[in-house]
């Protein structure tokens, strides 16, 4: 097994964490142009703890997917040894749980302690941490002791140089690998001059690498200026935000690439990694800047899909070709998975190609309710549902066991609940029992509800059964980390 050397933070040119900008296409493009390390945008700990790790075989990425199927963080092998995951957190145990979740897919973990925006500070995160050194120490120490990857943090400067240096010395003692310093106070904005003298004082006061940040407005107009900013701050490395957002080829030793080429390269990555079109559009608008009123800028502004963005940049053929390749790959993988399913399928499982369509049933009545009612009437144990999720497309399949026989739909569904309803339908049809459809005529469960004789029905998400069995099983076959996730505050 190859053991990769830990990330070094000396003599590096680094893409800064930027909300809505630091997604996978921008990070890969920055690496192409010469960035040594790239930081992802700040992601909040509570949101990440709701995610599952899914290997996306079509895109060849690792996705961290929220319960609503939105991809919160996407990464790939190309950046695995050079991407630092930045999180927003105000709790040491939550921060550690997130770090363990992503540890195997990133090169380092960073805690945001400099963002002055309300969405960060109102939860005690970002710049709010600067006024709570004890909490800073707790979070960083927990991370350093809890995972093997290097830990960093990014701060802003305090009102006085002395207070800032004292804080950084205390942070250094936690054992972190480096500290990034945005040379402005939390109330200052990009138009305010960056305080190079404070960053320099920090660099001279500690032995860990200091990463200078905040030079885009005053210093960094082209590649050669990166070294100028580094010398002015005596920092070990330089972190670039807005200058890279405007043109990521600022990392290119040979000088800027034509903006048209840069934007087309960005679009290629956005299509290749299925970036959401709103994020792609936002990043391209930051690059166009004063050209937004041009014909191309207006086309970009009007675009409502990735395809329309591609067409605005005369890349419609590229979009069609790339999406066709992915569709073919997806079909091939689905066929392979289906073949494997067929080979390993339990021959005793009764299968039918059915789906649950809520519109075919009365309100609050579902096949699962009918199946549960039938089991009670026949004095069988309650139905047991075993559900799996397929990593390829994140679809679900459920097998229901009734009277020691198993039933499932051969079709995969987009949610666990729909898959369970489909399994119930298969069972009911195999038994010759009514399933509650409107076309079946009089519905005895509805009449039972009207009489008030039945046990309370639960009306949740497609109308759940009469009483939710406590022994249902859900098996997710995505790759997940074994970790103790602390309870989140209500």
Key structural traits:
five-stranded mixed beta sheet; 17 helices; alpha/beta; 490 residues
Structure in words:
This protein is of the alpha/beta class and 490 residues long. Helices cover 38% and strands 17% of the residues. The strands form 3 sheets. It has an 8-stranded parallel β-barrel with strand order 1-2-7-8-9-10-11-12, surrounded by 6 helices. A 5-stranded mixed beta sheet has the order 13-16-15-14-17. The longest helix is centred in the C-terminal third of the chain and has 29 residues, at 316-344. The radius of gyration is 27 Å and the shape is elongated. The two termini are 43 Å apart.
Topology:
Blueprint: E1 13-15, H1 24-33, E2 37-39, E3 43-44, H2 45-49, E4 52-56, E5 61-65, E6 71-76, E7 83-88, H3 92-102, E8 108-113, H4 118-121, H5 133-146, E9 151-157, H6 161-172, E10 178-185, H7 196-205, E11 210-213, H8 224-233, E12 237-240, H9 242-246, H10 259-272, H11 277-288, H12 295-302, H13 306-312, H14 316-344, E13 349-352, H15 367-377, E14 384-389, E15 396-402, E16 405-409, H16 416-431, H17 444-451, E17 473-476
């Amino acid at each position: 097994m190859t053991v990769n050397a830990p990330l070094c933070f000396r003599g590096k040119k680094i893409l800064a964490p930027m909300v809505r900008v630091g997604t996978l296409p921008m990070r890969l493009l920055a690496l192409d142009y010469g960035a040594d390390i790239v930081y992802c945008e700040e992601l909040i700990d509570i949101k990440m703890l709701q995610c599952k790790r899914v290997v996306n075989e079509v895109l060849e990425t690792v996705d961290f997917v929220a319960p609503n199927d939105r991809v919160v963080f996407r990464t790939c092998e190309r950046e695995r040894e050079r991407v630092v995951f930045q999180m927003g957190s105000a709790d040491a145990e939550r921060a550690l749980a997130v770090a363990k979740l992503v540890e195997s897919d990133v090169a380092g973990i960073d805690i945001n302690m400099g963002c002055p925006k309300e969405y960060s500070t109102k939860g005690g995160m970002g710049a709010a941490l600067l006024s709570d050194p004890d909490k800073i120490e707790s979070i960083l120490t927990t991370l350093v002791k809890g995972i093997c990857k290097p830990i960093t943090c990014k701060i802003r400067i305090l009102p006085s140089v002395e207070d800032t240096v004292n804080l950084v010395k205390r942070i250094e003692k936690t054992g972190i690998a480096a500290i990034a310093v945005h040379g402005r106070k939390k109330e200052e904005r990009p138009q305010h001059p960056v305080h190079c003298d404070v960053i320099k004082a920090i660099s001279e006061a500690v032995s860990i690498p200091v990463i200078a940040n905040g030079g885009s407005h005053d210093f960094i107009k082209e590649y050669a200026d990166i070294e100028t900013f580094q010398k002015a701050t005596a920092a070990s490395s330089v972190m670039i935000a807005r200058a890279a957002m405007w043109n990521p080829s600022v990392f290119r030793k040979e000088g800027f690439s034509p903006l048209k080429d840069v934007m087309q390269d960005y679009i290629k990555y956005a299509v290749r990694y299925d970036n959401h079109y709103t994020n792609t559009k936002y990043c391209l608008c930051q690059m166009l800047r004063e050209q937004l009123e041009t014909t191309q800028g207006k086309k970009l502004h009007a675009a409502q899909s990735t395809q329309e963005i591609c067409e605005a940049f005369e890349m419609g053929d590229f979009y069609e070709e790339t999406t066709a390749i992915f569709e073919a790959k997806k079909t091939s993988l689905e066929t392979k998975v289906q073949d494997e399913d067929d080979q390993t399928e339990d021959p005793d499982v009764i299968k039918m190609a059915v789906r649950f369509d809520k519109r075919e049933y009365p309100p609050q009545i579902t096949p699962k309710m009918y199946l549960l009612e039938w089991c009670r009437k026949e004095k069988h144990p309650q139905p047991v549902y075993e559900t799996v999720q397929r990593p390829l497309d994140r679809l679900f399949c459920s097998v229901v066991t009734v009277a020691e026989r198993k039933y499932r739909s051969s079709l995969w569904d987009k949610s666990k609940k729909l898959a369970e309803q489909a399994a119930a339908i298969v069972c009911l049809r195999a038994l010759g029992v009514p399933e509650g459809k409107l076309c079946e005529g009089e519905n005895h469960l509805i009449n039972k509800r009207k009489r008030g004789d039945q046990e309370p029905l639960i009306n949740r998400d497609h109308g759940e059964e009469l009483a939710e069995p406590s022994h249902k099983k859900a098996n997710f076959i995505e790759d997940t980390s074994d970790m103790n996730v602390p309870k989140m505050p209500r």
